[in-house]
Design a protein that fits this description.
- The protein has one domain.
- The protein is built from six helices and no strands.
- It has helices spanning about 1-15, 15-20, 25-45, 55-80, 85-115, 120-140.
- It is elongated.
- The relative contact order is 0.19.
- The model has no long low-confidence stretch (mean pLDDT about 90).
Length: about 150
């Protein structure tokens, strides 16, 4: 995760002049960071030994909702009125981003309910967060040069 986060920062710093000229690229950068925040916060909350499943459920649900809202808003801003992104790519990007952030909310709700998969949702969210972040890093590092 740290390597992906570093890659995002390198991509942004290398292409900073191009990124800040276009609001959709600034939003795309923010989205990439929000997506990686999910696994980081979830891992941090899970490290607190001795806390109840209820407390962990609330922490995961609250942080998951925050990240879901922030990433989705950033995604909408990055794709709306963007002539370089096809409808097919927008759909793929939307599904990938939602697959990265929704499992953290589902995991928190599952912990609160005491059934439904619990922390296993975090595994799915983490895997999709890595994939979505790689996709965003590719755009910010390579595709921006076209």
């Amino acid at each position: 995760m740290a390597a992906l986060l570093g890659l995002i920062f390198v991509a942004v710093s290398i292409n900073l002049a191009r990124i800040i000229k276009r609001d959709n690229l600034v939003s795309r950068s923010a989205e990439a960071l929000f997506i990686l925040l999910g696994p980081l916060l979830a891992a941090t909350f899970c490290l607190a030994s001795g806390q109840s499943n209820l407390a962990l459920g609330w922490e995961l649900t609250a942080s998951g909702l925050f990240i879901w809202i922030a990433a989705t808003r950033s995604q909408i801003r990055s794709t709306r009125k963007n002539p370089y992104v096809s409808k097919r790519t927008k759909i793929f990007h939307f599904l990938l981003t939602q697959s990265a952030v929704v499992p953290f909310v589902a995991g928190g709700i599952s912990m609160l309910a005491g059934r439904g998969g619990g922390l296993y949702w975090l595994l799915a969210g983490t895997v999709f967060s890595f994939l979505a972040s790689l996709f965003d890093a590719w755009v910010l590092l390579i595709e921006i040069q076209r």
